[in-house]
Amino acid sequence: MKKVLVSAPGKLMLLGEHAVVYNRPCIVTAVGQRMFVTLELLPEPTFELEASDVQVAGYTKPFANLGEGDIPKGARFVEMAVKNFTKKYPLKGGVRITTKSEFSSLFGFGSSSASVVCVVRGLSELAGTKLGNKDIFDIAYRTVLDVQGKGSGFDVAATIYGGTLYFVTGGKVIEPIALEELPLVVGYTGVKADTVTLINAVAEKASRDPERIDSIYTQIGKIVDAGRAGFASKTWPLIGKLMNSDQEFLTMLGVSSQKLDVMVQAAIDAGAWGAKLSGAGGGDCMIALVSREKKEAVSEAITKVGGQIINVATNVEGVRIEL
Ligand code: MEV
Q1: Which of 88, 111, 142, 311 pairs with 284 at a CA distance of 20 to 30 A?
Q2: CA 145 / ligand 1 centre spacing (Å)
Q3: CA nearest ligand 1 atom 2, residue
Q4: Low-confidence residues of the chain: pLDDT under 70
């Protein structure tokens, strides 16, 4: 039967998290650890999934029941992606899907979104449907919302388009930022964060003090717009300052943590141009913008306070058919 292998990168938020959920822009880069998904057509209308990274083995379901019943956590995103795609573009038979990730789902690099994007891209190949990036975005973003209820879609865009993007909520704007390099050090806190819990915590804060929180979102949006120009002209010290201000606003939103604060401060003390949490906060990763000369010192400083340096390429290619 017809078979295809698709890969897609993870993502790292550079500026604008949380505010981007509320109609503001952000800047995100695609990172070079990839999700690999094999899709194989089956003669009968059955969905089969093997996803050993998320403890799913031998999972099967008739197409007619997709999205129904008690779905194991590790199967939810992929199953909904198959459901949403085939609702629009019916397949003749069924599909067997196998996922394998190069990156740990703990880092917050967006493994769920990357798997959804691979599935949508792979199914379009198997079905012979010509889908543009925005068509893939719409089905994949719908899927993420169906499963987790919330999210701006920036991670979906990063994994489809690749590179570094200026993005506005729901894909209202998706524009590439031309970059040859991005001098980042990435530090993992060792703590897994839950995006929806953190979005809810910020929403709760906003319900108590709507004007203050909305004004923080607006100021973060301004930081992102200034950052966009800074990235385009590679004005790293300016971007570093913008990252530091963004971190202050994220702290006001209550999403930083003691571990993140300590790692961010260690990076700055060791000579980084700037540093901040990346993503939902609460844990996951922090990023520091550093010159070549300071890279080692900053990495050591982060390690010394208990962070784990993650070596990833940034600004990498988006979803692609491998075989
Ligand atoms: C999570 O990585 C970033 C958030 O802004 C959520 C989102 O944009 O979907 C908190």
Answers
A1: 142
A2: 12
A3: 279
A4: none
